[in-house]
């Protein structure tokens, strides 16, 4: 079985984007603000959006199941206030839930949180609980920078985040550390801000005792871990200077990396440097990089090809494709087992 731990609903019907634009317009002109019931998307429209896009590509590329969350760049937690984010997150999560109900063999949800800069993270707990307990979601996306590129929140090791971690631990759901759109002109959203955030989050937890405090807390760092695998020696050396335990012991029971790296040498490096037990298959499809690589003739985000061609044993490949995801996303494993898988 091939589990893709990182997919977003980037192809939602246009009505969603139009509703969001009205919500944003309503922040300055309240008479324009839409109600939740103004958004009407039929099951047929959802099926069409999935069948012709994500599901078609999953079938072509041989992926079975995608952990599916709302479009990351549209989370835009910096817009409006908590109420704005709460309404928007609820709408986006419900759509992913409906997709998972329409295609239960192929999609399972991961939640977007109603984060808002400076707002107590306790405010996000209710939506997380709803998504996990009512919708059957198996993970959550946690934005370490809800300001959208200005980094106004404390680091992930700060008690600011602990109410969320306590709930994640209680529910046993891992967080993918995932920023949203950049509203800082210095940082391109998917080319810089995403990768910066992956690297930044890793260093934040490296310089902390977060996982001593929360031994069962699990973070998936997407996009291959940003700069982390490439600079693994630097991180090991910094940890050593800080008299921290070796990274394997200090972080690798809790931190995992996905395979959203869009070329063979990147995947070769990732799987060589990072223990295979810490690498999860993912494509972030349909996402940031949608073109065909002229050097290979294949889509950049067809990441399965790179895993198939990497120097890995069958057992290692199985861990990356299925075993690690089932070990880390325990609720997913339970769901699959309940269906005899
Ligand atoms: Zn993503």
From TrEMBL:
Keyword Nucleotide-binding listed: no
Keywords: Lyase
InterPro entries per the UniProt record, alphabetical: ACMSD (IPR032465), Amidohydro-rel (IPR006680), Metal_Hydrolase (IPR032466)
Domain of life, per lineage: Bacteria
Any one GO cellular component localisation term in the record: cytoplasm
GO terms, molecular function: carboxy-lyase activity; hydrolase activity
Record GO biological process: secondary metabolic process
Domain Amidohydrolase-related as annotated: residue spans: 3-329
UniProt KW Kinase keyword: no
Protein's recorded name: 4-oxalomesaconate hydratase
Lineage, opening ranks: Bacteria, Pseudomonadati, Pseudomonadota, Betaproteobacteria, Burkholderiales
